[in-house]
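Could you help me review a protein record that somebody else here produced? My question to you is simply how this chain folds and whether the tokens agree. Thanks in advance; the entry in question is below:
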Amino acid sequence: MNIDKFKADHLAILSGIQRLRDLTRLGVPAADEIAAALVKFSTTIRLHLAAEDKFLYPSLEKSQDPQIVAMSQRFEREMADIAQRFMAFARNWNVGAKIAADFDGFRRAANLTLKPVWDRMQQENREFYPRIEAM
């Protein structure tokens, strides 16, 4: 199975997280830029999640390898919660004025939301994708 697109998405997602970190260090004056970056970033994540749900997980769950099936189901199940929390975060902080009005709240929410996304991308890159490529 060719997962190059999924791997490229991971690079874009990790880059998006880093971009948000860099902008956040600039503080309240960057609130509009942060919101714009978050909107762009959330689009990348939405498209990636849709591709996983429509193509990757269903394809893997048809595998003859029960370990792949179990791993796919576990990753899909775990990702649902992370995705839901990220989408709520993105909806809540998609306007610069909201970020500027509660910058500390935004930073706390970003840390609580983006760390699990970052960790998940690393876990998939380290465990899931190599297993898929070895099929």
In short: The helical segments are 4-25, 31-60, 66-92, 96-101, 103-133. The two ends are 8 Å apart (CA to CA).
